[in-house]
Amino acid sequence: MQTTPTTTDTASPGSAAYAPTDRTVPTRARERASYDRESVHAILDEAYVCHLGFIRDGSPVVLPTLYGRVGERLYVHGSTGSRPLRMAGTPQEGQEDPGLQVCLTVTHVDGLVLARSAFHHSLNYRSVMIHGIARQVTDPEEKRTALDALVDHVVPGRSTDSRPANAKELAATAVLSLDLNEVSAKARTGAPNDEPEDMDLPYWSGVVPLRKGYDALVPSPDLAPGIEVPDYLAER
Amino acid sequence: MQTTPTTTDTASPGSAAYAPTDRTVPTRARERASYDRESVHAILDEAYVCHLGFIRDGSPVVLPTLYGRVGERLYVHGSTGSRPLRMAGTPQEGQEDPGLQVCLTVTHVDGLVLARSAFHHSLNYRSVMIHGIARQVTDPEEKRTALDALVDHVVPGRSTDSRPANAKELAATAVLSLDLNEVSAKARTGAPNDEPEDMDLPYWSGVVPLRKGYDALVPSPDLAPGIEVPDYLAER
Hints:
Two copies of one chain form a homodimer.
Chain A: E1 33-34, H1 37-46, E2 49-56, E3 59-66, E4 68-70, E5 73-79, H2 83-88, E6 100-114, E7 122-136, H3 140-154, H4 167-172, E8 173-179, E9 182-188, E10 206-209, E11 218-219, H5 231-234
Antiparallel strand pairs in A: 1-9, 2-3, 2-6, 4-5, 5-8, 6-7, 6-10, 7-8, 7-9
């Protein structure tokens, strides 16, 4: 099922899919690509870390970092002193406006795919790749919303069950926003794709699924007596 | 424990640590950085996917991909038609020799860190970041070694228990190598770092560890009868 999106396939923000662009149409395995908003959101909401790519002094940098999503916008945060945060606040080479060109990628590894042939070994995975300009969030209201989203991304509901940032903490934190415009998802699922002529080879073939979920909670050693595990943690 | 590596700390390939460089010394949280070879190898050997960053038409790209390690060299592979593989085989802008400037990052998320304050929410993680030039592997012997390493990275021992690549498959596959020279590891472990004045707040605080390991094997639906689960899978 080879699908070749065309540029007439433009999507408005209200439509069900992102419009493919040159940067979001893979050269290989196009049948694994999707532009569906719901699939993209689901992949983004399930992961904890994104890999944020940007260019510093002419070299690529790939930084693992936490993120949060509010509708069609992602947020990442960091110290006001960190390099990508500072870079996003000043115009970069060849640009008039501030903003940092980024590629933000989120990946889940779901299983190890063991084929009869070495060639067809693979991973089952789901990933999202976003291209765009990351901009510093300067509006205090949006900054608060973004920081809540970052905490709620770790555990939904947690932002209302922790002490909100104070003025000093807010001043020390910079937030970048990245709009979900140029976006694609990619996934591999299912059994190995062995060649017909390999079917009788004496090698085990199949998928080793990676375990998901959480282990037992580790309360802080100095947790005050009488503080119980909140429902949003007990129910998982 | 703030450690500030200096440039006098140069490491030879035989030494226990990588030499820090401007690109591998973080501006923030330097106490989390390490240059120890053993720690770096352990982080690399435990993960399945790396995020490969490179520059294409002036924009950063972050691609999730499988990798393998042989000593102080990493390998990634792909179709000979894939963009980064092609780019690594030709001299890039401003370069005389072929090779693609990359940043390769590997990250494990180990736990969710729930502090009493929103500000101190974090993740426990281990990551490795490598800067360097990725080069196409042209020596047939090294290519074979690299492809074995990629399969054995998925499941150790698997390359000797599957059909090796044939001439057609070898010709369709390109392999890039990246030497471990400019390398750093970063990790956060342990309990939340709450502020002393927050200790009596009525919020649960602690770590939610992410579950690791594997779920039950899913054999290929067409697996021939009599093929048993190999020891290297049964023992995990």
